[in-house]
Design a protein that fits this description.
Blueprint lengths: L11 E5 L4 H12 L4 E5 L2 H13 L4 E5 L5 H15 L2 E6 L17 H26 L4 E5 L12 H21 L5 E7 L14 H8 L10 H12 L10 E4 L16
Parallel strand pairs: 1-2, 1-4, 2-3, 4-5, 5-6, 6-7
Helix pairs in contact: 1-2, 1-7, 3-4, 4-5
The chain binds NADP nicotinamide-adenine-dinucleotide phosphate.
């Protein structure tokens, strides 16, 4: 059995998007410090694989195929997860999707899909999990995976940008509403992280290099770079962080998109 670290509550955490990329890394990072984990994803087999890797680290873990835009599926999954893991004291909403507006100024045909997964789902998830958070007592925490595109605009992905700006607003509203109950809500804004979502954008060496040039830290982020920050925000070590927007981007936004010094 893995040793529980100081400041790590023993409560379980629901991680959406848990089959892949940042969500999967969050599951593994949490399991590594003894937190029970539920990995939810459209990809049920991938979620099971993540849960099994977490269980190998010595924690209770459960994977499930859950479409986070389906409120009744989320409710049913909450019941199962509470039975399987006992108390639930954390949510990471990492499920996400992106669509490009190629021919038009906005991608109206896919607008609702993007907003539903990236933004509305967090409202659905928090509503469904609140009774469990309250039952677990003070110390529960919500982390929404936003994006640096929750802070800046991007002309080719307007629905994604709107969803991530919205997620930050929702986070701050939860912080206001739930803070007095000892439930915290924070958002993390990753920059360019090497996951299946970014893969098509960096498919050629030239494209990859053009991203890397913009990152003062000199490399793309790894999912675990984000997961360690998420784990901290879910822990009691971050007990006074509420409504915060934490950027994890290797310095991209800090320099306003300039090329990094020393880049070729
Ligand atoms: P990823 O590897 O594609 O993981 C996202 C996961 O969410 C996928 O397994 C996806 O399943 C799942 N998902 C999509 N719609 C869902 C739904 N309705 N219900 C349940 N699961 C669903 O991407 P990632 O890069 O790790 O992204 C994680 C989060 O970080 C996203 O919110 C993303 O916007 C954000 N982010 C990523 C980056 C980056 O550079 N990678 C930067 C900033 C922010 P399918 O593959 O089957 O759709």
């Amino acid at each position: 059995m893995v040793e529980q670290r100081l400041g790590e509550p023993g409560t379980g955490v629901v991680v959406t998007g848990g089959a892949s990329g940042i969500g999967r890394a969050c599951c593994l990072a949490l399991a590594a410090v003894g937190r029970p984990v539920a990995a939810w994803d459209l990809d049920a087999d991938g979620a099971d694989a993540t849960a099994s890797a977490c269980a190998d680290l010595g924690v209770a873990a459960i994977g499930a195929g859950v479409d986070v835009t389906d409120a009744s599926a989320v409710s049913a999954a909450v019941t199962k997860v509470t039975d399987a893991l006992g108390s639930i004291g954390g949510l990471v909403h990492a499920a996400g999707t992106v669509r490009a507006a190629i021919d038009d100024v906005v991608d109206l045909d896919t607008w609702d899909v993007v907003l539903d997964v990236n933004l509305r789902a967090e409202a659905v998830l928090v509503s469904a999990l609140l009774p469990a958070f309250r039952a677990a007592g003070p110390g529960s925490a919500i982390v929404g995976i936003a994006s640096i595109e929750g802070l800046i605009g991007h002309g080719f992905i307007p629905s994604y940008v709107a969803s991530k700006h919205g997620l930050i607003g929702l986070t701050r509203s939860f912080a206001h509403r739930l803070g007095s109950e000892g439930i915290r809500a924070n958002a993390v804004c990753p920059g360019y992280i090497d996951t299946p979502m970014l893969a098509p954008t960096i498919a050629t060496p030239e494209a990859r290099a053009s991203f890397e040039r913009k990152i003062p830290s000199g490399r793309l982020g790894e999912p675990d770079d984000v997961a360690r920050v998420v784990r901290f925000l879910l822990s009691d070590e971050a007990a006074y962080m509420n409504g915060a927007v934490v950027v994890v981007d290797g310095g991209v936004t800090a320099v306003g998109g300039q090329d990094a010094l020393g880049a070729d």
